Backbone:
């Protein structure tokens, strides 16, 4: 399962690198899917944190601080998914 969720995270990161605002819909759907299928509550929480940050960017625009917060949230999510994969 973590491999599938990691693939969703990789797609999320790829969409964000393009910088196309229209991709935020897909990013939000992918992060929600990760949260719903997370192997542990902590992973779900990290996915929802990233989703909240991405939604804030949609509403308020992409400031350097918001971009940094999203990158950090995605990094934490990646580590949690990798760790969950080691445990399964």
Residues:
């Amino acid at each position: 399962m973590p491999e599938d969720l990691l693939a969703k995270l990789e797609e999320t990161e790829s969409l964000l690198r393009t910088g196309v605002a229209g991709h935020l819909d897909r990013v939000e759907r992918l992060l929600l899917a990760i949260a719903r299928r997370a192997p542990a509550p902590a992973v779900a929480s990290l996915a929802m944190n990233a989703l909240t940050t991405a939604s804030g960017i949609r509403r308020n625009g992409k400031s350097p601080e918001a971009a940094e917060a999203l990158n950090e949230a995605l990094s934490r999510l990646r580590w949690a998914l990798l760790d969950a994969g080691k445990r399964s």
In short: The chain has one domain: 2-87.
